[in-house]
Amino acid sequence: MEKAIQEPAGFNPEELLLQAHQVILPEPNGNKPASLNLKVQAVKVGVDLGTAYTVLVVLDKHGQPIAGEYRFTQVVRDGLVVDYFGAVNTLQAMKRNVEARLGLTLDHAASGYPPGVPSAEVRATAHVIQAAGMDCRDLIDEPTAANLVLGIQNGVIVDIGGGTTGIAVIENSEVVYTADEATGGTHFNLVIAGGADISFEEAEVLKKDPSEQSRLFPLIRPVMEKMGTIIARHIQGRDVKSIILVGGTTLFPGIAGVIQEVTGVPTEVPNHPLFVTPLGIAMHDSHGA
């Protein structure tokens, strides 16, 4: 299969994502994060307020990931902030942890939003970040942010988050069409919870357990097929050669094969897909330029 991810001059997306995986840590669970003692001043910061995960990432002036944190949250639904104070409190805690590691204050950040979200909700995202103590002047739609990392010249990026499936058609390195529909990893949890008669939170844990995923696959395959149908509908009539899946939900094994089967288009998932969009959001932060 022809490689769909094009490497822009100056960096390799696979190496960038690997570095992000190494420095963006899960919630420290009460343990004091180890200090990095880095001598950095100019930084770029990105915040991705997702339906399932909130991610904060810091880049140095060369655009390389140097620190970050992610944690499971339920403060956003279908691209809309539904728990403002929970979002602010979570982000403040993450900010403190990352600042402790870096030994500097994070006073600005860029953020992203799914395509099609009302402008009032986009501003709400910025207000969360401002309330957490970071100036937020730079906002970018999530598919465009993802392509800052992937550098796709022609193809489709599909960002499958907790609550939504975002689709972006790329032609000549430009986003020419976007769409967003309310189907994502949260729907996996709902199906698992119903099928196994467990809570939503227990379903989230079970979904991420590698030893359980092959058993769960037939249960959630119909949700993946629905995602494939959504994608197929939005790319109908277009000469699409490849689909790249990003977002935390794409970590579930087998999803690329189902999407490819439904759409008939070669489909792949890059390594560490959870960090693609947050990295692109951080790249968009003009404060650290």
Summarize the structure.
With 289 residues, the protein is an alpha/beta fold.
| Radius of gyration, taken over Cα atoms and rounded to an integer in Å | 18 Å
- Estimate the strand proportion: 15-25%
Q: Residue-averaged pLDDT, rounded?
A: 87
Query: Could you say how many structural domains there are in total?
Result: 2
What is the level-2 CATH architecture name of the largest domain?
Answer: 2-Layer Sandwich
Per CATH, the class of the largest domain reads Alpha Beta
Shape type: globular
Unreliable runs, pLDDT <50, ≥5 residues? 1-9
Quantity of strands, as a count: 13
Main beta sheet strand tally, sense and closure: 6 strands, mixed
Could you give the topology of this structure?
Layout: H1 13-23, E1 24-26, E2 43-49, E3 53-60, E4 65-72, E5 76-77, E6 80-81, H2 84-102, E7 110-113, H3 119-131, E8 139-141, H4 142-150, E9 155-160, E10 165-171, E11 174-181, H5 185-196, H6 200-207, H7 210-235, E12 243-246, H8 255-263, E13 267-268, H9 276-283
Parallel strand pairs: 1-4, 2-7, 7-8, 9-12, 12-13
Antiparallel strand pairs: 2-3, 3-4, 5-6, 9-10, 10-11
Helix pairs in contact: 2-3, 4-9, 5-6, 5-7, 7-8
Structural features, described:
With 289 residues, the protein is an alpha/beta fold. The chain folds into two domains: 13-144 and 275-288, Nucleotidyltransferase, domain 5, CATH 3.30.420; 151-274, ATPase, nucleotide binding domain (Nucleotidyltransferase, domain 5), CATH 3.30.420. Helix content is 40%, strand content 22%. It has nine helices and 13 strands. It has helices spanning 13-23, 84-102, 119-131, 142-150, 185-196, 200-207, 210-235, 255-263, 276-283; strands at residues 24-26, 43-49, 53-60, 65-72, 76-77, 80-81, 110-113, 139-141, 155-160, 165-171, 174-181, 243-246, 267-268. It has a six-stranded mixed sheet with strand order 1-4-3-2-7-8, sandwiched between helices. Strands 11-10-9-12-13 form a five-stranded mixed sheet, sandwiched between helices. The longest helix is centred in the last third of the chain and has 26 residues, at 210-235. It is globular and about 50 Å long. The model is unreliable at 1-9 (pLDDT under 50).
